[in-house]
Each structure stands twice: as C-alpha cells, then as structure tokens.
Amino acid sequence: MDHDAPTRPVKTVQTAFEIVLTLRDLTEATVTELASELDLAKSTVHRHLMTLTEQGWVVRDGAQYRVGLRFLDVGIATRNANPIYRYTCDRVADLAEKTGEKAWCIVEQNGRGVHLYGESGTSPVQTYARPGQLTYLHQHAAGKSILANRPREEVERIIEVHGLPEITDQTITDPDELFEELEKTRRRGVAFNEEESVVGLNAVGAAITDQSGYALGAISISAPVARLQPEEMESDIAELLIETVNEIEINMEYAGGQDEYPLE
Amino acid sequence: MDHDAPTRPVKTVQTAFEIVLTLRDLTEATVTELASELDLAKSTVHRHLMTLTEQGWVVRDGAQYRVGLRFLDVGIATRNANPIYRYTCDRVADLAEKTGEKAWCIVEQNGRGVHLYGESGTSPVQTYARPGQLTYLHQHAAGKSILANRPREEVERIIEVHGLPEITDQTITDPDELFEELEKTRRRGVAFNEEESVVGLNAVGAAITDQSGYALGAISISAPVARLQPEEMESDIAELLIETVNEIEINMEYAGGQDEYPLE
DNA sequence: AAAGGTTGTTCGAAGCGCTCGAACGACACT
DNA sequence: AGTGTCGTTCGAGCGCTTCGAACAACCTTT
C-alpha cells in the first residue's frame, strides 16, 4: 500500500480501524464475516471487537456487530470545535433558504475535502452528499475554490498524493487543465462545477480565506442543471456567495485571537 | 477500572483510543503534552499519532494534533444507518416547530443514552446538549421512557454497570425510587423530567417501541420551567408526543422487514 | 431426538512488534 | 553562540498480540 515506511505504523491500531471501517461498509457483520473479509483469525477479530465494544466504539446485537455511536460523539465534537463550522453554519442555512437550493460548507483535511454542514432549501435535490463525507477537492466547486487559494506547491503535493480521479466525463483529470481552471477561479472569485461530480448537477463555490488569503474552507450552492444555468451562476449566485463569504470573514476576523485555531 | 477480565482486551488499541479521547478533550495537543497526560513515552505517542494521521483519524497542524473529521464521517454513517434516526428526524423537526421548544431523539447504546438528532424551535433554549452526546438514561425524560419499556432485568443490569450518578438535586439516585418512577411512566405513557438533569429545565419524553413493546428509542421536548409547567406537560405536550410516537411506530411497521435492524 | 453443521468463545504457546529511553536534529528565544 | 524547548529516529528487550485448535452453544436437518 505505502511505498516505504518513514516511521513504522502501529499495526494493531491499523487492524482495529480496519475492522471499524469494514463494519461501517457492511453496516453490520459477525465475527466470522469480519475474519474472512480481513483475513484474520476469528479469535483476533473477537478480541478486537470485545475491546472496541467495551468503550462503545462498536455495539453488538446478538451475533451482529455494528459501529457504535461514540464515533458520532467524537465526530460532532471535532466539527463543533472547528471555527469554520461555527462561523458558517448559520450562513449556509441562510443561503439554502434564500436560493431554495442545497448549500454546503466544506473544509480540507489531509488533501481531501470533508462536507462539514449542509442545508437543503425548499426544492429538495436528492444529492448523495452527507455531512462528514470525504471527497476529492478537484471534483467540485467548493474544493476548487479552496485549491485556488492555496500555494501552488501545496496543490501539487495534493495531486501527487491523491491524484485526480475521474468521477464523470466532465471531471478535470489533467493537472495543467486544473491549474488553468484555478487561475480562472481566482480571477472570478468563485468556482464553477458543471457536472464534474454528478451528472445533471451544477454548483458554484467560494473560498473562505484568512487575512493572508489562505483558504480555510469554502461554501457552495448546488442545483440541477435545469435550475442553475451558467448565466445565473456567474451573476446572482456568484454575487450572493461572495457577499456571504465577506460576512463570514469579517466575523472571523473580529473574533480573531479569541479562538486560536489556524486550521491548517 | 474493570473488576475482572473475561477476555483480555487489546491494550494497544485501548491506548490508541485513549489518545483520541484526550485529543478531543484538549481540542488540540502536542506529542509531549499527550505523553505526559497519558504517562507514555514520547516515541510511543508519536508512533501512534503517525499511524492515526495516515488514515485521517487525526490531523496535525505543525506541532499541534487534533482529532480528524473522519470520525464525523463514520459517525454520521452509523447514525444514518439507524432506522430510528431515519423515521424520527422529520417528526422531531415538526415537534420543534409546533411547540417552539427543543425536541430530541435519543437511543440507547451499551446502557447509556445517545442524543441522535435535535432541533430547536423558535424560542432558543441554550441547552448544552449536542448530537452524539452520551448521557445517563435515568437522568432525563427520554431515557426514563426507554427504561420503562425494557425488561426489569435489563434495567437492573444497566444500574449495575453504570450506577445512578447524581447530576442535580432532583436526579433519581435510588434504584427502588427509579423502578417506581418507571412504573408510573408506563401507566402515563410519557416520562417527565423535572430539573433532574439541568436546573431550570423540564422535559417530557415518550418511547418508540417495536411490536413487542420493546423500546427502540425515545423522543422528548424540553423547555425552561417557566414555559413548561407540570399541568401542561401532562396534557398538551404529552398528547402531542404520544401522537407523534404512534405515527413513527406505524411508519416503521409498514417498512417492516425492509430494513432488518432490531437495534437493541 | 440425535447428528452434523453452524456459530461465538476460551485457551496456551510462539514469536512478532510494541514500548521504552537515549541520542539526534531542528527550531526559538536569550 | 548557547541553552532551553520541541519532534523525531533508532535499537533492543520482553510484553502482548496473534494464531490455531479445542470447546460450547445453538440451529437445522434427518
């Protein structure tokens, strides 16, 4: 999996989390299922599950094991500790209400995007996004606006680690094309997503930056192509997003030193 | 901590999660801080953090480490997989809107309560509850209505494991008193919380049960004592809750075999 | 009702790999 | 330059994880 080992990882911990992830993917599983899936001894899996269950990381229901809600506890706690979340979630709700469409707030972590908070407007678009979801930054508007406001070397490192996987015909998969797109995004102040992540879905995104212009996160509005045409994306929606971002940035600057938390 | 060891837990995994929990409590910490806090060698903590960071469970920002949003990913996924969440969240929102107060949906896991989903009404009560929060079932209305619809042996086992910790003067701390209260709750169909978890806060809760009458979860409405007096709790609010529960239970029965998931 | 298939669970031993402390390197502040 | 930090690397020792086999509990099958 990894080319080399700068520091040897703790293998036991890796298998523990592998169990958790498999459990999440399967929704529920028995000891034997997990053992065969992960190619481990039943007894090993059993011991791990006992350990995880004791602390609520895993719950058992008869023979079936499931991921415990303690992950939700820790997950929500970290989200709430994130200033981007605190300063954007109300604004995201406003955007959803004003536009009637889906609005999201997204941050970067380890070179990937994480959906922090989303709110649906009156016209429910059945998107498959959910809070906590891990995405590739080059595949959507919010992600591209984050990349557009990061140093080029950082973007290059992200491409190196994660690549530019394709998800629809429209996904940008060429690094040069991406850098061109980021340049355009910087000039416009907003990023567009024209069916690059989901066929039939367009979106506009704008980055939230600190005083130095470094992107801390982004917000976006998405809607079916029928309701969100390029001309509207460039005018009304773009303007609304930029206004909102300005408001958020001002609020964050005022709080300033209060909550020290540069957040990569 | 534990009286005896039925099966020896995997110590390495325990320390890994201890690191995560300490990190959550401190919001952020350095290697040395964690090492001294947990009484481990710096190198050990470092190796663990490297392992956890590689998978996104932990994020580093220079010298500071923080819990990663991957916990949110897994946490939200398990919440969404939970039928109680799927069938109650819209109804909880309705309740919040109708009453103008705070409404919650809660489930039991490992003998403790977990706040699954909450929605505020128009009158914002600054409660300290958040989704994912771990609570004691005997300390609030929703929890008591769950206990009231579980076999007595199960309640006894929960008391044995978790005790009946006091949080306010009004908290029930005597097992006999609790069983009496649960009996009353069963007769009424709803449970009351009169400043038993937070001074100045009252609440009413009702259990969601399966066909056999076994509690799967509960919903509750809470408000400051000034706005939620006993007489109202027993009439309007109680009725509203019971109606809502009936609606939820019918919806769940119809879906029936669709999503097999007894969910303790 | 007994037999054969599941399953989860316990046990002991073998040896992997986790933990530790000390040494190293990088950085900031004096 | 010097002296505190800090994070990081390295090499052993032995703790503890892993495994497989045996056990027990439970269905299904005959």
From TrEMBL, chains A, B:
The answer to whether UniProt assigns keyword Transcription regulation to this entry is yes
Q: Where is the IclR-ED domain?
A: 70-254
Q: Which Pfam families match?
A: HTH_IclR, IclR_C
- The keyword Protein biosynthesis appears for this protein: no
List the GO molecular function terms.
Answer: DNA binding; DNA-binding transcription factor activity
Q: Which processes are annotated in GO (biological process)?
A: negative regulation of DNA-templated transcription
Q: Which UniProt keywords apply?
A: DNA-binding, Transcription, Transcription regulation
Per UniProt, residues of the HTH iclR-type domain are: 10-69
Return the InterPro entries for the record. Answer: ArsR-like_HTH, GAF-like_dom_sf, HTH_MetabolicPath_Reg, Tscrpt_reg_IclR_C, Tscrpt_reg_IclR_N, WH-like_DNA-bd_sf, WH_DNA-bd_sf
Do you know which SMART domains this protein is assigned to? HTH_ICLR
Q: Which PROSITE patterns match?
A: HTH_ICLR (PS51077), ICLR_ED (PS51078)
What is this protein called in UniProt?
IclR family transcriptional regulator
